[in-house]
Amino acid sequence: MIGTGLLPAGAVVEQALALSHADEAIVIVTDVHEASLRWAGNSMTTNGSSVSRNWAVASIFRDGPNSARVGSVSSTSVASEDIEALVRASEDAARTAAPAKDAMPLLTPDTGTADDWAAAPGSTGIEVFTDLASDLSVGFDGADRLYGFAHHQIHTTWLGTSTGIRRRFVQPTGSVEINGKRGEGADLASAWVGVGTADFTDVDIPALLRELSRRLDWSKRRVDLPAGRYETLLPPSAVADLMIYMAWSMEGRGAQEGHTAFARAGGTRVGERLNDIALTLYSDPGAEGLEYRPFVATASSSETLSIFDNGLPARRVDWLREGVIESLVYPRATAAEFDATATLPAGNLLLTGGSGATLDDMIARTERGLLLTTLWYIREVDPATLLLTGLTRDGVYLVENGQVTAAVNNFRFNESPIDVLRRVTEAGATETTLPREWKDWFTRTAMPPLRIPDFHMSSVSQAT
Questions:
Q1: Domains of the chain, each with CATH number or no CATH
Q2: In this predicted model, what pLDDT tens digit does every residue of 228-280 receive, in sequence order?
Q3: Cα–Cα distance between 290 and 284 in angstroms, integer?
Q4: What share of the chain is helix, strand, coil (3-state, %, to 5)?
Q5: 228, 460 contact by CB (below 8 A)
């Protein structure tokens, strides 16, 4: 928790840069305002809010234009007297560091200091849940037992470099998850609904509760099915979880060096067609309602981000364009090494190109198959094929002659999202959705429901 006498983040950046003795320096400050609300058994249980700060200083000593040693040190301290100590610690770390493999010249600004540099951070509090709590109270009066969690975060990031870059961005992230339970013991039915949001003004709790009740109604009849391959309808949430994992695996270097599912003999799979359905998977920092920070702000390097790329603008990237693999992730140094275009990792994911059909439309056209709700406990089995395993959760339903007729047991699945895209026979209307498995790391997605003719349920699961 931080108080009202806190040194403004922009001032922290300027002081740290002024104190630096390194050849170059980078300072990143992120103020986080957070609020949460929990409920269980048709009763509110806890709520709270907090304010915190995370900041980092990276010092760079140059051995040449493309040779450098980097030291990066971070802190949660809010005391102004700690600024110089952190700067010196980063310089000490840089002096003893090995040469950076991703060394590049730091970027310079194409404009002056951001107009909102001195603005206060974005903020939130438990009042953001006022309407949500009122609508939930109506659901609490029903027979179904409701459990859930609402979470809102506002991350405000300031980036400053000794080469003159000054960038600031406010990132709101919110979500609501509701789990409903009906019955007891062997007759217990469980269903889940969730939605992502920036400010909770667009959250329709009555609609979520109606959908939750419908899914619990589907569970009045139970059918046990064996493992096998089934025609399966994946709802947008489940599609999002698969596409997120695929996006996390699209490292350019790994593909170039033959370590990932996007490698092929002599190069990468960019240009390979997966499906004749014109599906396009893309990221866009300006996508309405799913906006994300439009520049790099990182205190460390990885295979997908470089500390030397701080301030690099984010732009729309088509990862899959009309069924063809189009792009992989390359920091500037890796892009230069492999003669590729520098490409930032996804900050949101949108899959488009479907028919415009709703999930209910697709159910109505299904002779016999399964309808999933969500996936969870997803883990990688084989990076060479991107084979994933995981479990179904909170509702798997049998569809017969265009109607949901029963709930069935849960399964363990084995599937690669690349192969899933290859075998799609129908894609519906794209809608904003909340991934279930990866919600804590990635919330900004818009996906269609997908029909897979032979989704692999590898074994029966006892999960509920």
A1: 9-215 (3.30.2290.10), 221-464 (no CATH)
A2: 999 999 999 999 999 999 999 999 999 999 999 999 998 999 999 999 999 99
A3: 8
A4: 20, 40, 40
A5: no
